[in-house]
Design a protein that fits this description.
Largest sheet: 9 strands, mixed
Order of helices and strands: EEHEEEEHEEE
Number of helices: 2
Structural class: alpha+beta
Distance between the termini: 15 Å
Number of domains: 2
CATH class of the largest domain: Alpha Beta
Radius of gyration: 15 Å
CATH topology of the largest domain: Signal recognition particle alu RNA binding heterodimer, srp9/1
Shape: globular
Strand content: 35-45%
Number of strands: 9
Length: 111
Amino acid sequence: MKLQPIVYTENMNGAVKWYGDVIGIEPAYQSDVWTSFDLDGATLGVHRVESLAERGRVELSLVTAEPLEAVLLRLADHGIEPTRGIQDETFGRSIVLHDPDGTPVQVNEHH
């Protein structure tokens, strides 16, 4: 799996400028809604949201190469059920589960 933390922002241009100018990383992909920065085997995602409640939130996201059905079987072997079932997304499919401390973890299967 590949690590992909996601930062949620109301100001995509401001966030991209901050990560570029202050942190010194250039976007690998950029749109009005999603920007990704490749970071030596990991990806930092910046996702635009409209809600003040979401602004500043960071979510742990993992990108898997295996089908989500296989991930669900492994989770079931450990007695873990995702918060939601497989969701179709514009980038592929995803599930969300929580670690033992309650941290949400999104597992994504890209197209």
